[in-house]
Amino acid sequence: MLRRPEIGAGVAALAIFAYFSATTQTFLTAPGVSTWLYSSSLFGIMAVAVALLIIGGEFDLSAGAMTGTTGLIVGVVTTQWGLDIWLALLLALVIALSIGAANAVVVIKTGLPSFIVTLATFFILQGVNLAVTKLITGSVAIQGMNDVPGFGQVEWIFGSSFSFLGMNLKIAIVWWFAITALATWVLLRTKAGNWIFAVGGQVTSARQTGVPVMQTKIGLFMTTAGAAWLVGMLQLFDVSTVQATTGIGQEFIYIICAVVGGCLLTGGYGSAVGAAIGALIYGMTLQGIVFAQWDNNWLKAFLGSMLLLAVLVNLYVRRRAGVRE
Amino acid sequence: MTAETAVTGSTSGAAPPVLEVREIGKSYGSVIALRGVSASLGVGEVLCVLGDNGAGKSTLIKILAGAHEHSEGALLAYGQERRFSSPREALDLGIATVYQDLAVVPLMPVWRNFFLGSELTKGRGPFQRLDVQAMRGTTKTELARMGIDLRDVDQPIGTLSGGERQSVAIARAVHFGAKVVILDEPTSALGVKQAGVVLKYIAQSRDRGLGVVFITHNPHHAYPVGDRFLLLRRGTSLGEFAKRDITIEEMTRLMAGGAELEALTHELERPKGA
Fold first, then answer.
1. CATH number, domain containing residue A115
2. A211 lies within 8 A of chain B by CB
3. Which value, to the nearest 10 degrees, does the dihedral of the CA atoms of residues B17, B18, B23, B25 take?
4. Which of A92, A277, B35, B47 is the right S-S partner for A70, CB 3.0 to 4.6 Å?
């Protein structure tokens, strides 16, 4: 239990899977599985990145709005100004990474909690997303992405589907698995991973042993921003439109997925696989409730209960590890 | 057996002391924190620095560790005069300091803590990865050499006892090339039994040929393991004594300020016949 942060979430995921498979007709069918896997994948990519950040001792509340920002940038510069689609992708990535780095620098230089700093960024992005989109396009959504030259090629990377075992799966699911595997490798098998655990677990000790604290934290904020860019692209090229309100309100879901997956909110402990399972729990429940034809509001109540349970389990883990402050 | 018998310079033959201070002092602006302190440490010796709160112990450590530059006197390492302007310079000469907070991350496994900031890797470029096996193995053998037998180096270091954690920090310093370890109050936060564990590891380090500077305010911890004793009081030295030249009672008396303690004892006595 102590060694594997994801065990608790794994058990919960199995239980939820078994429950909805048994009680609904649709859950275990090919279209059913591909629906909840896709739903999980978009949350999962963000949850994994956010988990790394939480393990490193920080939060990013602007991560949700950032998925909208990146999609809107690509949408606006291609449909309105005719910029080459590949350049647009690059531009959106550079802007996202810069905002991530800016978050990090403000947090580190001022010593303010990242919760407050990124809350500010969140509101700025939310406002800018709406205001700028309206200013340039005159509406609150991007139209006409399908007509942009090169859309088809990019769509193959971010918006295509393939069939597997009779299921029609979206490519986002592959991205989700790849990102989870990569994050796990970085966390457990590289120096950077060691440093992430250390800066989140005990930053003074990390500094004393020569860990580059600042670089590690900047890298983490940029990773989260980069993941938001990826999810922004996956959404944009899946439905070929983007709303100016995309992503708002989802930042807490990423954090909840990470915590349900075993990350300590106080940093220094957690896993990427756990966060991916946390997102799977969310995706299965989100769709399972629809398949079961329940009132959709039960989802929020369920989410809150899962979070409370996870936090209690995490507290127990922390006590057992004998962490003394 | 007064302060005049204080010894300066090495008493252990030809080899120069690994670490020596001569009439060293430090002032912060007009505040004199330390003045006229002399002591030396030979190979395989334990120098205990004793003093009450505010005696100047932490100022002395900071000078030895390279955190603060001294403003008077001389600091010698391996017989050569030195002036440390950063902890890195002290470390490069094999002088490592283990502070009270130990610089460990409680939730991380013992082996990850052992190599934190100096991780071993294999492979190149994007395939560079941690050499987990080597790090686990080295941690286990290094700890075994200190006489610590951990069943499992994968357990979070926070689950170890205070004494064991202290010992892991010492073993880490030694593995990364320390010839001299400066221990800042390693026993002060520990119970009697755990303090005993740490004293055992100090003796073990000494037997492996390390110089140990052991800072403490407890003569009962210092006396059994120390070879020399430097007594500080209010920023000045009360002298450096070899073990044969001082008793534990006298050490306690000097630290507490001799006459003052006697006066206090007198004051606290029950009035006779009252």
1. 1.10.3470
2. yes
3. -170
4. A92
